[in-house]
Design a protein that fits this description.
heterodimer; A: alpha/beta; Rossmann fold; 4-stranded antiparallel β-sheet; 13 helices; B: alpha/beta
């Protein structure tokens, strides 16, 4: 049952920052933003992998690398045993069909001049999913799948609410019968009551169509709800990955612990348990040496300042990148 | 809590006109706030939370019609002239906005923007203003405050900018803080820091706070009382513990249940069917009726008024949910 569909290996990505005139005059070297610093993970067939982290930690960059919107500086992504950045895969459009992305902003990710019907039909035509005659019935079928009324096909995106637009985005992704869906903050822009509707739809469709989903979000409760496994990212590096329930009920990495306890509880009596994090996420322009979290960590030692901890399996838990995971969790 | 309230909002209505139609952005909002109390306004986008805040401070009157009464320490704010209001804004009532990126002037240093407030509202001298500015930045937790006075907003991160906003708002020691989604644009770890800071300062300066948010978790953790808004009206209000733990209005209950907490993972979440109504076409009866499972025929035609159902607890519903046995009230 656990068949690996995608294997991400040591993914690095840095964006060069344009040098100012002053930098050129002073002969300062060009700087770069290190968005991903060696991310490795595997996606299993049919699972939902949640990716959480603060803004700027590289969640969205990872998602965009997977759909080949960005090319990594180094590292590889294998899909079905094939390197997606390799020469053979480049010419091959089938990867673009099999892995689909859905974006955060429902207002800018749909062409405002195309009707819903056109948007869906375009996806079908580009990938030659259906002969011309069968396109209209397939569009109707897709609208039905995401529970939009049939007259939606003739309407323009501005006539829909945020929740309905995200349904259109889901329908567009599903039109080409993908195997993997990348949901980058799919429901973050929606109101709570509408959020639940879209999440329910996604869970139901996953069950029905056996989809593998990478669910990127910053809403921890939501990620816990939809994911089988969860990866916590900090400064372009996975600090903890493991089974969703285990990770949320007893996080092992000090960063995961702080992040999870920062989410405000719905129970007014449940106060004061939060672990306060000092300071903010360091700029990815200069990632601290050693463990990237050491500047904010309560358990920091000399070792943390120099050596980068590797992800390693912890008994009874997932994989953690922390030198002192054992000691920290003994006290907990 | 039995203190005389410092802010009393009574039947506040704000109407905007768009192309000849009147949009009822806020309708009949009433609440009172005591010294050092934190009142939450919660609702989905477009429910009128922010407009309520802006109406209190007389900001909404420039583009809409405001009726009803807002009494601040016995003074009526809605009829006050712009000139008188200006003396109260910033000095007695301060406001912080959602976007720390757009509400600071990018061309002025943080120090200038801080001392500007002090110059307008206090009679401190130049040196004293500078000292006070440093003290305020220190107070909100900005490290090396003295050296950062000369920096521009773009040199600060989002969380730091929100701290600067808070420092500016609190510089003149106001007695009331209106906070419009102060942490929505921030990460959870920073959100926790900022909320803690606001609560701590409210406590120290015995300042009242009206906190607008859409996050029920934030309400649960910070507010004493809460008003739940839907389509411009308060549908339920009362003490936070009671409202969140035993909601009586179906909408509040729906909101609470759509947050995935304490539900089996990967199961279908409870969701409120449909979407919030547009202000252009509000239903005739209860605005929530089209999405409500308990709606009867009365809900389609008449609008339920906000009524007392328990001491300090109101709801606007013809078919309120039963109070459960563990309702301590």
């Amino acid at each position: 049952m656990t068949q690996t569909v995608m294997k991400i290996d040591e993914l690095h990505l840095s964006f060069p920052v344009s040098r100012s005139l002053l930098d050129v005059v002073q002969r300062k070297p060009g700087k770069s933003v290190n968005a991903l610093n060696g991310v490795s993970l595997e996606l299993q067939q049919g699972e939902t992998l949640g990716v959480v982290g603060e803004s700027g930690c590289g969640k969205s960059t990872l998602a965009r690398c997977i759909v080949r919107l960005y090319e990594p500086t180094s590292g590889q992504i294998h899909f079905d045993e094939e390197n997606i950045f390799g020469a053979a895969a480049r010419k091959d459009r089938s990867y673009n069909r099999r892995v689909q992305m859905m974006f955060q902003d429902p207002y800018s990710s749909l062409n405002p001049r195309m009707t819903t019907g056109d948007i869906l039909a375009e996806a079908l035509r580009v990938h030659q999913m259906r002969p011309e005659a069968e396109i209209a019935p397939r569009v109707a079928e897709l609208l039905d799948l995401v529970r939009l009324p049939q007259d939606a096909a003739k309407k323009l995106p501005h006539e829909f609410s945020g929740g309905q637009r995200q349904r259109i985005a889901i329908a567009r992704a599903l039109a080409v019968e993908p195997e993997v869906l990348i949901a980058d903050e799919l429901v973050s822009a929606l109101d709570v009551s509408v959020q639940a509707q879209v999440v329910n739809l996604l869970l139901e469709l996953q069950e029905r169509l056996h989809l593998t989903i990478l669910f990127v979000a910053h809403d921890l409760r939501l990620v816990r709800h939809v994911s089988n496994r969860v990866a916590v990212i900090y400064l372009g590096r996975i600090v903890e990955i493991g089974d969703s329930e285990t990770l949320f009920s007893s996080p092992s990495h000090p960063y995961s612990q702080a992040l999870l306890s920062a989410a405000p509880s719905l129970d007014p009596d449940d106060k004061g348990a939060a672990i306060q994090l000092e300071g903010e996420l360091p700029s990815p322009l200069n990632v601290p040496p050693g463990c990237p979290f050491h500047v904010r960590c309560r358990h920091v030692t000399a070792q943390c300042r120099t050596a980068i901890p590797e992800l390693r399996a912890l008994e009874g838990r997932g994989e953690v990148a922390c030198h002192h995971a054992e000691e920290i969790n003994q006290h907990a | 809590m039995t203190d005389h309230p410092i802010l009393e909002v009574d039947n506040l209505c704000t109407t905007f006109s768009r192309g000849g139609t009147d949009l009822p952005a806020v309708r009949d909002v009433s609440f009172a706030l005591g010294k050092g109390q934190v009142q939450g306004l919660v609702g989905e986008s477009g429910s009128g939370k922010s407009v309520t805040l802006r109406s209190i401070l007389g900001l909404a009157r420039h583009y809409g019609e405001v009726r009803g009464s807002v009494r601040w320490q016995g003074q009526e704010l809605t009829t006050m002239s712009e000139r008188q209001l200006r003396k109260i804004r910033g000095r007695e009532i301060a406001m912080i906005f959602q976007e720390p990126m757009t509400s600071l002037n990018p061309l002025l240093t943080v120090g200038t923007q801080l001392t500007e407030t002090l110059k307008a509202h206090t009679d401190l001298g130049r040196r004293a203003r500078r000292d006070r500015a440093i003290e305020m930045l220190d107070h909100v937790g900005i490290p090396a405050a003295a050296s950062r006075l000369g920096e521009y907003p773009h040199q600060f991160s989002g969380g730091m900018r929100q701290r600067v906003m808070i420092a500016i708002a609190l510089a003149a020691s106001p007695k009331l803080l209106l906070a419009d989604e102060p942490t929505t644009a921030l990460d959870v770890t920073i959100q926790a820091q900022i909320l803690d800071l606001i609560l701590k300062l409210a406590d120290e300066m015995s300042m009242g706070v009206v906190l607008v948010t859409h996050d029920l978790g934030v309400v649960a953790q910070t507010c004493d009382t809460v008003s739940v808004m839907y389509a411009g009206r308060v549908v339920e209000q009362g003490a936070v513990r009671q409202v969140l733990q035993t909601p009586r209005h179906p909408y509040t209950e729906g909101l609470m249940r759509s947050v995935p907490q304490d539900v089996p993972p990967r199961t279908q979440l409870y969701s409120v069917p449909g979407t919030p109504p547009s202000l252009f076409s509000l239903p005739e009866g209860c605005a929530f009726a089209p999405r409500c499972q308990a709606a009867g025929s009365a809900c389609q035609t008449a609008r339920p008024a906000l009524q007392d159902i328990a001491p300090g607890r109101q709801t606007a519903c013809f078919h309120p949910l039963p109070a459960t046995q563990d309702n301590a009230a």
